[in-house]
Amino acid sequence: MRLSSDRAAEWPGSYLRWINVPKAVRTFFSVLLYVVLASHLLFWAFIGWRLMTVPENHSSLDIKTFNALSYGLLGLAIVVALTRRAFYVPAAAAVLALASLGGVHYLDRNNLMLQYETWISRGMPEKGAPAKIDSGR
Q: For residue 64, what are the domain limits?
């Protein structure tokens, strides 16, 4: 049996979407997604600016706490994708959240941005020096 063009265009939403969600709830989650997405972009703009202008690789900011916001954005993107017909913005938000998780891991592993206590405990490595990985031996 062949799907009609209307049903084929709505495929992800037609089978997975929460149908009886009030419009106010959908709007709330959509606005919240845009706010969290904007905060993500501002955070990465700040990190890029800081990496280019500040020679030190340590600060009082623990970049790993940003992972909580990334997981929140990922969950929010899934909720919005299930409550809206168009899923391109939530898909882009989910990709950004996953890229943010990878970016935070990269910044940490290459000692590009560390919390001060972590920087001290790692032996005050230079900016960009790969982290020494304990092999457990």
A: 17-121
Instruction: Confirm whether 134 is domain-assigned.
Output: no
- Model pTM score: 0.76
- Between CA 101 and CA 2 the distance in angstroms is 40
List the beta bridge partners of residue 114: 58
**What pLDDT, in 10s, does the model give residues 78-123?**
988 888 777 889 999 999 999 999 999 999 999 888 999 988 888 8
CB of 33 closer than 8 Å to CB of 89:
yes
Residue 135 lies in a domain: no
Q: Is the dihedral of CA 97, 69, 120, 133 positive or negative?
A: negative
Fill in the amino acid letter for 10: E
Query: Which residue intervals of the chain are DSSP H helices?
Result: 5-9, 11-16, 23-53, 66-83, 88-109, 116-121
Are the CB atoms for 122 and 58 separated by under 8 Å?
no
Does residue 41 lie within any of the structural domains?
yes
DSSP 64: G
